[in-house]
Amino acid sequence: MALSVSWSPASKAGLPGKLRLLDQTRLPTEVTYLETDDREEIFSAIQRLVVRGAPAIGCAAALGLAAVCQHSGATDRSQFLEEAKKTADYLGTARPTAVNLVWALERCLTALGRAACGEARVDSLKRILLEQALAIVEEDRQLCRDIGRHGVSLFEGAKGRGVLTHCNAGGLATAEFGTALAPIYVAQEQGLAPKVYADETRPLLQGARLTVWELQRGGVDVTLICDNMAAYLMQQGKVDLVLVGADRIAANGDVANKIG
Questions:
Q1: Is residue 189 helix, strand or coil?
Q2: From first to last of its 260 residues, what are the pLDDT tens digits of the chain?
Q3: Phi-psi group of 3: left, alpha or beta (phi > 0 → left; psi -120 to 50 → alpha; rest → beta)
Q4: Which residues pair with 33 in a beta bridge?
C-alpha cells in the first residue's frame, strides 16, 4: 500500500531526514512524492491538500515539525523550544478545521517541554521530537488496524457483500491502512471479497481520484459511480452496508460526511 505520509531517512550519515508525502493532488494519473524539510513548503502541502484526511494531516504536521527543527541552530533549550513553538503555531494555521493537525503539534510540544525540564541538550530534544512524531504515526497505523479487525465482523457470514463508500477514508487519509476502509481491506485479506461502489464525491472527487485508486491497488473489486447513483443502487439491492469517514458524529450517533 502506498504510504501517504512517512519519514525519509537521511541519505548520508549526520544529515537529518525529511518529511515524505505522496502528492494526492496528482492522483490517480501520476504518482509523485514530495520530500521536504522546508517550513513554508510543508505549510503549503497541508493547505493545498497534497496530504489530506485528518489522521494523515496530523502525522504530516508532527513529522514536518521534526524535519524543520532538525536544522535549528539554537544553542540552548529555551531558544530551541521557542523556535519549535513558532514553527508549530505557523503549521497549525494551514488547515484550521483539521483537529488532528493542532492535536499532533501540541502533543509534540508537550513532549518537548517535559524533556526540557530535565537536562536534555538541544540535540537530544531534536531526537525526542522526531521520536514523538514517529510514535504518532505508529499509533495511527495500529488504530487503523484495530478498526479493520473489529469492523470486519460486518462482512462475516456473507461473501461478496456490496459496500458503498463516500469521499476517502482509506490509507491515503491515514498513516497507512485507513479508517472506514480498514474493514474492507481486512475482509479482502480474509477472502470475503467485498464488492465496493465508490461515490465520485464532488466537487474534489476524492472517491474517484483516491478511493478507487487505492482499492484497485489493494486488489479490491471496486466500481466508480457518480454521486446521484447511490440511491438507485440501494433500490436495486446492491448495497448491503455503507462505510464512510466521519467529519462529525452527533450525540445520537448520526454521522455526517460531506454533502453527499
A1: helix
A2: 789 999 998 766 566 899 999 999 999 999 999 999 999 999 999 999 999 999 999 999 999 999 999 999 999 999 999 999 999 999 999 998 888 999 999 999 999 999 878 777 999 999 999 999 999 999 999 999 999 999 999 998 889 999 999 999 999 999 999 999 999 999 999 999 999 999 999 999 999 999 999 999 999 999 999 999 999 999 999 999 999 998 888 999 998 887 64
A3: beta
A4: 22
DSSP 157-184: T-SS-EEEEES--SGGGSSSS-STTHHH
Provide the grid cell at 167.
469521499
- Smallest Cα–Cα separation from 112: which of 126, 100, 123? 126
What is the value of pTM for the model shown?
Answer: 0.93
Count H helices and E strands in the chain, helices first: 9, 9
Residue 89: active-site member:
no
Phi, psi of 87 (to 5 degrees): -65, -45
Query: Do strands 162-166 and 195-199 pair parallel, antiparallel, or not at all (unpaired)?
Result: parallel
Closest CA to 24 of 209, 231, 253: 209
Rounded distance, CA 260 to CA 172, Å?
20
CA distances from 49 to 46, 204, 256, 257 (A): 5, 10, 20, 17
